[in-house]
Amino acid sequence: MNPSAPPPHDPRDRPARLTVGVVGAGRVGPALAASLRLAGHRPVAVSGVSDASVRRAAALLPDVPLVTPADVLDRAELVLLTVPDDALPGLVEGLAETGAVRPGQLIVHTSGRYGTRVLDPALRAGALPLALHPVMTFTGTSVDVQRLAGCSFGVTAPEELRLAAEALVIEMGGEPEWIAEEARPLYHAALALGANHLVTLVAQAMELLGKAGVTAPDRMLGPLLGAALDNALRSGDAALTGPVARGDAGTVAAHVAELREHAPGAVAGYLAMARTTADRALAHGMLKAELAEDLLDVLADGERRGDPGAPGPRPGGGSGDGGGSGDGGPGGVR
Length: 334
Known about the structure:
Elements: E1 19-23, H1 29-38, E2 42-47, H2 51-60, H3 69-75, E3 78-81, H4 88-97, E4 106-109, H5 120-124, E5 128-134, H6 143-147, E6 152-156, H7 162-171, E7 175-178, H8 184-211, H9 217-235, H10 243-246, H11 249-262, H12 267-283, H13 289-304
Parallel strand pairs: 1-2, 1-3, 3-4, 4-5, 6-7
Antiparallel strand pairs: 5-6
Helix pairs in contact: 11-13, 12-13
């Protein structure tokens, strides 16, 4: 080590480069602001209504005052709009109409669904619009700040703000991934399919194992699901295993019968996932056509028996649009 070199500085000791405000103290906003604080920026204001929001702000942004949304914009150079998707357009319009938006102010939203077009009212008021969506589930606790390290961000921004958007993501420890404005809804649908639906599948599987007498469903599923997820991320559809991919029509019929008796609410989802899995297995040459016929008959029979919301019968043959549905269902089960 060079003794004449200056000692390293904690980022918090550096002069703040931007004042940061948060509109919507849900699980996301305070964590991002806390991460920006570690990078040398200075959170100065946060807005939140519910008791949970107030507690989160106090825990992750201590000493940062809780104010109205308009006051947040008045105090901050960089404003994080971290509200639910459906509330975002109205919030932006309201802030712009009341004159809260200032020229040159960075207005950042974290919605996966929208690009920067939703920020057009703020743009017309002179603001600089960025869409930075962290691809992570948030707990609303300090662990989220640590999890941002290596987290992908879906980024949409005007070309002239590309470097600014990348810099903010990198300062939060993330990896920027550019998403075209028109691709944002599809991008978000893909993430919901892979993450949100995964939670439902896992919770349902644990519930069914409990009904089957398993005392620790989480401990049983952990290694299996971890391996299935790792294999799916590495190999895609080639990771498919289980009775559907093998064409074991009798096993699938037994599953449907058991679910119909013990968990009728799970039948429609099982049939839908099994059919999509069969389509993908057929399309990739994993499911033999001669075995697929009996399997598809079983699934069609289950659908005809009146499961609400289940898709109607159609020929198997590889829709190719399942969006990763092979990751759920029976992957890894022999």
